[in-house]
Design brief:
The chain folds into two domains: 186 residues, Rossmann fold; 186 residues, Glycogen Phosphorylase B (Rossmann fold), CATH 3.40.50. Helix content is 41%, strand content 16%. It contains 15 helices and 14 strands. α8 runs parallel beside α9 and α11 packs across α14. It starts with 12 loop residues before the first strand and ends with a helix.
């Protein structure tokens, strides 16, 4: 972890550059404007895709920059190149004291190409864990961008270690913290004891998130338990995505339509109630940084069934291998529908007293390690270091 720095109470121009406007972007920008009230913030982004991630307006004090990229959807490094001239025009007009940019292969890449400094590069998880390894071009772009950044933000050991496979980033250039959650928005809730046993999925219905594995694993558990379940199983699925047809086919194949509820896309401020009403959270993502929805579930006091990947192991351990620093839940292999089914059945059959102890433990872990109000100070430390060094 970096040393503690105090931000000077002076006027600065900060350019924040990301692909789209998401709940995470809003939280970062809100924290920055509140902590640095004498500074000026400029938000540079691309056009939204088919999914609108955040409907609330930008925080007060943040200016959305009008530029060519605001009307373009950008997904690859090649998409960035035609926009470079106008991006350099934006940099020349604003003359920021700091550029905070990510994901790596788009916003970060453009900032590196422009040779803009000081440049704080932020990984969004999948850019390092998945996109960087997609092909030789993305690997080169990742290495180039990492080498040209003055600082690097990541949210897990796994992301940090993979990034170092592409560039030798020294410790003093890395700021690592879980993005965390706003704990008051996800209060602890005593686990339900009546009604259906609710399995909650909040991730997009995309191959990266293994949503087909999740659904088939649930259907297997529903089929195996039948009337023997202490409470009838129910799967609640938020969102949507490209696997919608396949997911509905799997559910129909098992005849489990009566056991699955689709909520559609929900605003972030409506999701806490669904966590409180759930009994267990599930994600079968193939890769992930520190998952915010996992922390939201744990903060509410819910166990998690998650893929056995390094970033999840930083937060979840099996109850027969319990650790004080991690929450309790179940780790399942990628694509292993039987393991998913077994975990759901084990969760459904857990005694109430054990569920309450688990809930209290998971809440305590997030309070200690996943509190956004505490962790966001490390972002400010990174800003202070880069601006004092420049």
């Amino acid at each position: 972890m970096p040393c503690s720095y105090t931000m000077p109470d002076i006027f600065m121009k900060i350019l924040y550059f990301s692909r789209d406007y998401t709940t995470h972007d809003r939280r970062f920008l809100l924290a920055l404007t509140q902590a640095l009230p004498t500074s000026e913030f400029f938000y540079v982004r691309f056009a939204s895709g088919s999914v609108v991630f955040e409907q609330r307006p930008l925080p007060d004090g943040v200016r959305l920059v009008e530029w060519a990229g605001l009307h373009c959807q950008v997904n690859t490094p090649a998409d960035c190149l035609p926009l470079m001239a106008d991006f350099e025009r934006v940099l020349a007009d604003i003359r920021p004291n700091l550029i905070h940019a990510g994901p790596v292969q788009t916003c970060g890449f453009m900032t590196a190409l422009a040779n803009a400094h000081p440049h704080l590069l932020m990984s969004w998880g999948s850019d390092i864990l998945t996109t960087a390894r997609r092909d030789a071009l993305n690997g080169w772009v990742t290495a180039f961008t990492l080498r040209h950044a003055d600082g690097f933000i990541c949210d897990s050991d796994w992301v940090r270690d993979v990034a170092r496979e592409f560039a030798p980033i020294p410790d003093d250039r890395i700021t690592q913290f879980a993005w965390g959650i706003d704990l008051p928005q996800f209060p602890f809730a005593t686990p339900p004891q009546t009604g259906p046993f609710v399995v909650l999925s909040t991730r997009s219905w995309e191959p990266l998130y293994g949503t087909d594995t999740l659904v088939e694993g649930f259907c297997l558990a529903w089929q195996r338990l039948g009337n023997a379940a202490p409470r009838p199983l129910k799967l609640v699925m938020m969102g949507g995505g490209s696997l919608a047809g396949k997911i509905r086919d799997i559910i129909a194949q098992y005849g489990a339509e009566c056991a699955v509820q689709f909520t559609g896309m929900l605003p972030h401020n409506q999701q806490a109630a669904h966590f409180a009403a759930a009994d267990v959270y599930i994600s079968c993502a193939h890769t992930d940084g520190t998952s915010i929805s996992l922390l939201e579930a744990m903060a509410t006091g819910r166990p998690a069934i998650v893929t056995d990947i390094p970033s999840n192991r930083e937060w979840v351990s099996a109850m027969d291998n319990a650790q004080d620093k991690t929450g309790w839940g179940w780790l399942v292999g990628k694509g292993d529908t039987n393991a998913v089914a077994e975990a759901i059945i084990a969760a459904a059959q857990m005694p109430d007293a054990a569920r309450l102890a688990l809930a209290q433990h998971n809440r305590a872990v997030v309070e200690a390690r996943g509190d956004w109000q505490k962790n966001s100070r490390l972002l400010l430390n990174a800003y202070a270091k880069l601006t004092s060094d420049s």
